[in-house]
Amino acid sequence: MRVILAEDDVLLREGLGSLLERSGCEVVGSTGDASMLPQLVRDTAPDVVVVDVRMPPTHTTEGLQAAREIREEFPETAILVLSAHIEVEHAMELLASGKGIGYQLKSRVTDVNEFVDTLHRVAQGGSVLDPALVRELVTANRRSDPLAVLSTREQEVLALMAEGRSNAGIAHRLWITEGTVEKHVRSVLAKLDLPETEDDHRRILAVLTFLETR
């Protein structure tokens, strides 16, 4: 897996690069300047880009802006965004841009195998949300809650879908069979009024509905 790292914290960037190289990934480029990132992608054609949200010069959304440019020009390039904070609006915007998107808190980058697994899932077209963000959304209250039609188990399945888990992964976490998960997923999509189509990513649409309940 070919990876680009865009992070202005030199220690974090070098540390991630070293960990990924030791885990069998190929770090084909790194930068602390978000403005250089799109050209770096053009030059190296990575499988996945890991980018911080807040980068110089203003430390606001430079990384996110670079990610948008990459997604427009290279829609097949996966993007994993790292953030020091839970930023729901950014997470929703990223998920809406299609497949191969991840959003993870920097504080969660403590288990190398888990982080590499996240990169692989994003590179393979998955949409991965940090569990801390998912928990915040699960516990948030809204007057009009479209998820009220879902059973407790269906909401658990949807929360794990939002983390980017496959049906097999959800089955493992909930100690149920994969067939049972498939039935729950079908029920969730039906109750959220997401009919089968050839163009829409129904799981992503379900996750967006989930996020909008915050």
Q: What's this model, at a glance?
A:
The protein is built from 10 helices and 6 strands, in the order E-H-E-H-E-H-E-H-E-H-E-H-H-H-H-H. By secondary structure, the chain is of the alpha/beta class.
Index terms:
214 residues, alpha/beta, Rossmann fold, Arc Repressor Mutant, subunit A, 6-stranded parallel beta sheet, 6 strands, 14% strand
Structure overview:
This protein has 214 residues and is α/β, with parallel strands linked by helices. It is built from 10 helices and 6 strands; from the N terminus they run βαβαβαβαβαβααααα. It folds into 2 domains: 2-129, Response regulator (Rossmann fold, 3-Layer(aba) Sandwich), CATH 3.40.50; 135-211, Winged helix-like DNA-binding domain superfamily/Winged helix DNA-binding domain (Arc Repressor Mutant, subunit A). The protein has helices at residues 10-22, 37-44, 62-73, 88-96, 112-123, 131-139, 152-162, 167-174, 178-191, 202-211, and strands spanning 2-6, 26-31, 48-52, 78-83, 101-105, 127-129. The chain has a 6-stranded parallel beta sheet with strand order 2-1-3-4-5-6, sandwiched between helices. β1 (2-6), α1 (10-22) and β2 form a beta-alpha-beta unit. The protein is globular.
